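Researcher: Here's my situation. A collaborator sent me these components and asked whether they could plausibly form a single complex. I don't have experimental data yet, so a predicted model of the whole assembly would be a useful starting point for our discussion.
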Amino acid sequence: MNLTIILITARALLGRRRVLMLLPMPLVLVGITLIGVSSPVDGADWGPTVFGNLGLSVILPLTALIVGSSVLGLEIDDGTITHLLTKPLPRSEIVLSKLAVAWVVTTVATGIPLVVAALIAGSNTLAMGLVVAAALGSLAYSALFLALSVLSKRPVAVGLVYIVLWENVLVSFVDGARVFSVREHATTVADTIGNTSLLDSNVSLTTSLIMSAVFIVVGTVGATQRLRSFALTGEAN
Amino acid sequence: MTAVELSAVSRWYGNVVAVNDVTLTIGPGLTGLLGPNGAGKTTVLHLMAGLLAPSQGSVLVGGDPAWRNPSMYSTLGLVTERESVPGFLTAWEFVLASAKLHKLASPADAARRALGIVEMEDAQNRRISTYSKGMRQRTRVAAALVHDPGVLLLDEPFNGMDPRQRLHMMTLLHRMAEEGRTILFSSHILEEVEQLSGTVQVIVSGRLAASGDYRHIRRLMTNRPHVFTIQSSDDRRLATVLMGQDSVTGVRVEDGTLQVHANDYGTFTRALAKQAKASGVRLTSVLPADESLEKVFSYLVAT
């Protein structure tokens, strides 16, 4: 890890207007939770939709996509990556520093609204579960999207395909697809710790933890390997 | 004393050859990499800077391979053509960050020194996004210099600079070359190279077309065959006189103009006025044809 890279990446990320895209989703989550609590409907009926289908399936992956594809991807897009590449730094140091920023920012941006919503819904254990799930899911998603930003010229498009087609469509038809779905892993972790009817999960905890680790390791190693042989195209313009 | 060596280096993209079997060594001092746009200058510089893998051959910087070798960057600095700088930082923050990323012992001193070399101290606390093109360029040079590298590569460093900034940058490059650094800059403008550099590598269509002392290459360029379109008070008479010159290989009178093929630019242009005057012919226009740099370069490739 490299503090200089971390600080500059954080400034670049949080200084851009793009970061404002992170604001509306948490507000919607908290708002819907307030509506759910004040309605006469049982928590077990609306809880899984709000925390699972909205919180962990939409807000977490989309936030991670915006952040994870930006930390290194924006520098590749605008060419400032050459400043970083022409330094005598191990490429793993660059990738780990970028990943750290993406992880922390995504965890904060998703963890806080999830906790607030869980506390409004009256479940302290769920709040705890959601924090851990947000942290774990953020790391796995960030590693995935960071790797995509080095491997692909269109990381956001590829990331959206994964979130929409794989995690939302394919998973509902093919049961085995769940194993490769970060959101399922995060939901399982939150459900296990939270132990409430406000959330449903479909994958075992062991599978979730192992597969999360696989996503993190493969994403980080893949990004590092790719960055090692990162070739600037002749006419970078 | 760090040298950059290319041995039989080729680089292709798909079936487009960008650099074709180039062998050259750049030693200490100032060297110009000259060539028309799209000749492969940027590709050569990126190969040297380890940002591209050679498809064939080897690229060594100070004896070590440039590709997949980040530790090489402690002896090499690169200023890219693309003007990409994080505009949200000040020059001070940007150069200081570069010094820290190089893990220098005292980054603040190094940043101060580098900004001093390019004379950017006065504006160093303003955001880079507020700078003029020349100031950005100097800031990027400062960042590339902060670790006192033995090799400095600059891609079209004079593009978009006004004459004063250009002069300043030239003085700067000269001074650094005199300190014993290996400095290579690319340019598609002959005069820039003429003013700056004694040693020139000319690259055309991915091939090394000429290499060596600037004066020698200049002579190759001026002594090349040439076509002139001339109008005068008596074209036929002038044609007869000119045909007697050794430097003239052919004349043609057509549509009231005289076309002269000369095999030696320098000798012919000197002889023309003299001969016209001696034979009482008044010249009304002398136009050298195909004067584009590309033509000059392609002549060099053919020889």
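Model: Some features of this prediction you could bring to your collaborator: Chain B touches chain A at residues 13, 18, 40, 42-43, 46, 49-53, 67-68, 70-74, 76-78, 80-82, 84-86, 88-89, 97-98, 100-103, 143-144 (CB under 8 Å). The radius of gyration of chain B is 24 Å.
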